[in-house]
Design goal:
globular, 277 residues, mainly alpha
């Protein structure tokens, strides 16, 4: 259990660092951030696949390409939303994706949702309404972007479920990163806001490094312990990001907005715990 918690804390710190860098680098276009975040991760996924002699093209290529396209859409929308929202709010609202994943699984995978799960979803969405209603800094367009990001992220979960064990996890990530690198690179040509200078190159490539290790440590945590025992630690990312945003970017959150964030996390954790049980 201690090992699993250790890995999950490392994962949340990695994702928090990536979130803060996204906010700090918002002077660049979202397409540039997508490009550098993706190419930074390719430095790890490609050598891994080549070293272990895992077929890079995978087996379910249509699904892999679709997962990549949906994933890059979610990522791009998240990066865009950060320009309009406080980073803590953006991260907490993006965590609605498991709810969208469940709803989409009902439509496409014919999964069943218990009545009590609808209660958990209601708690989470009520939290969103409270955040929007009592935080005057919540921009409506930014809120729309992050909700759409969560929706596409939920679709990613459904596609990964559909892919199943037919392809290696790193193959799935590698497809995602290649598609994001290509699309981000092409779109950046048309919206190259500014050219990185000095340490900005390192910071941009660090997006991919922190993203990769965040995913790696989270996977190791879930492999080390039952999901229902450590899943709540995953949402520390929201708390870490909000606290760091206050000190680094001067963000402030009304008390009721914090209550809304707590309701979102509570609804999500209860749903995951119920499904695990």
């Amino acid at each position: 259990m201690k090992k699993a918690i250790y890995f999950m804390i490392l994962s949340t710190f990695s994702f928090t660092a990536m979130n803060l860098l996204v906010k700090y680098l918002q002077g660049f276009s979202a397409y540039q951030l997508v490009f550098f975040r993706s190419i930074g991760t390719l430095f790890f996924t490609m050598p891994f696949l080549l070293y272990h002699k895992i077929p890079i093209l995978g087996n379910q290529r249509k699904l892999l390409i679709l997962r990549g396209l949906v994933g890059v859409t979610s990522m791009g929308l998240f990066f865009m939303s950060v320009e309009y929202l406080k980073i803590g709010s953006a991260v907490s609202l993006r965590y609605l994706s498991p709810i969208f994943a469940t709803l989409l699984a009902v439509l496409f995978l014919k999964e069943k949702v218990k009545n009590i799960q609808w209660l958990f979803f209601l708690i989470a969405f009520s939290g969103v309404l409270i955040i929007k209603g009592f935080d005057t800094d919540i921009d409506s367009f930014g809120l729309l972007l992050i909700i759409l990001s969560a929706l596409f992220s939920g679709l990613v979960y459904v596609l990964i479920n559909k892919i199943g064990s037919g392809d290696h996890p790193v193959v799935i990530v590698n497809y995602f990163m290649w598609i994001a690198t290509i699309l981000g690179g092409v779109l950046s040509v048309f919206q190259w806001v500014k050219t990185p200078q000095g340490m900005e190159w390192v910071l941009l490539l660090s997006l991919g490094i922190f993203g990769y290790f965040g995913q790696l440590f989270m996977t190791k945590a879930f492999q080390s312990q039952a999901t229902n025992k450590i899943v709540s630690f995953k949402y520390m990312e929201v708390i870490f990001t909000m606290i760091a945003g206050v000190f680094i970017f001067g963000d402030s959150y009304p008390l009721l907005s914090i209550l809304g964030t707590f309701m979102v996390i509570t609804g999500l954790v209860l749903n995951v715990l119920y499904k695990s049980k």
